[in-house]
Amino acid sequence: MRRGSRSITARRAVLAAVCALGAGCTITTVIPVPEGTSTYDQIPAGLAAEFRAARVRFLAGDTAQARAGFERLMEAAPGTVPFGIWWQECEAELSDPDTLRRRSEEHTALHPGVAGDILAARAQADPIAAEIWIARAEVRDPDCVWVHHARAFLAARDGRLDEARLALERALAADPGHLPSRRLEVRMLARDGLSEAARMRLAGWVARAAEDPRVLPTDLAEARLDLALLSLGAEDPGDAEDQLDALDPQYVEAWRYSAARACVAQERGDLQAARRHVEDARALAPRQVLPAVQEALLFDDHERDPFRARAAWSVVRELAAQSDEFSSAFETLRARVRIERIDAAAEAPAQSPR
Length: 354
Prior knowledge:
By secondary structure, the protein is mostly helical. Among the domains are: 37-175, Serine Threonine Protein Phosphatase 5, Tetratricopeptide repeat (Alpha Horseshoe), CATH 1.25.40.10; 253-348, Serine Threonine Protein Phosphatase 5, Tetratricopeptide repeat. The protein is built from 18 helices and no strands. Helix 11 (195-209) runs antiparallel to helix 12 (217-233) and helix 15 (271-284) packs antiparallel against helix 16 (289-302). The chain starts with a helix and ends with a helix.
């Protein structure tokens, strides 16, 4: 049930500032993700128990011991990409980017192969260096899903969207159940404004990823947060709240989590909780546009405080002018219109006939 025009306006404003996810209909279909077929993602049966044990150590915060466990797994099965990804996650926590890159390249030198090349590419800060490693992997196996996924990821990150779509098509043709490629597909759909299609596919992705021990906890938590935002855009605050309750906040950006909680609270009509979450988000990310927009909307549409609302919209205008996000122009225009409306309302009594 719709709560009213102010609530809908606030929700759309929030989602536009996050990732241009427009409002849509309530989800009717969850598109499942099939099981993967890539040999590079299969965990050898004899190593499954050791993998789960190393994963448990990582989740418990024993990163050094977890890294040692994943290193043993990489030695035993150097062609299994997920072993290397979890090892890189540990290494990233325990060392610096240069060390991670060097150690990834050393592993590849000792164990030449597609998986090693892909791991070396993942560790590169320079996209050109990453492309060189990807090209090496492609020479070894032109049909490897990870090769096409890596190309799609780099192209999407650089804004080369046609190239990204082509590479993503090749990745999904190689393995329709490849979770990293399916996750990138969702991002591309959302970027293209196809929010309901993105939501249906992301719901299926989360359902499968939640049962897959190969998925990093950060990836699952971020997917749940994105699904919560999509659900808010589809006027389904119940599902949004379920996704936020299910995720572990330590694995997502704290300000984004607080901003999403503020959206849900506002939809529920709990303005006190919405105010608390907005204040948290503003404190955590004072230069981000989204929390500033939420604060301005609370002052303007709910608390009806024109003085504080005008000050808040002025902050939004300033932050949006400094931002290179694609929604910044929209927020700049919105702030200007809101400020003009507040100023006009303040001048009206003085101009009215006595």
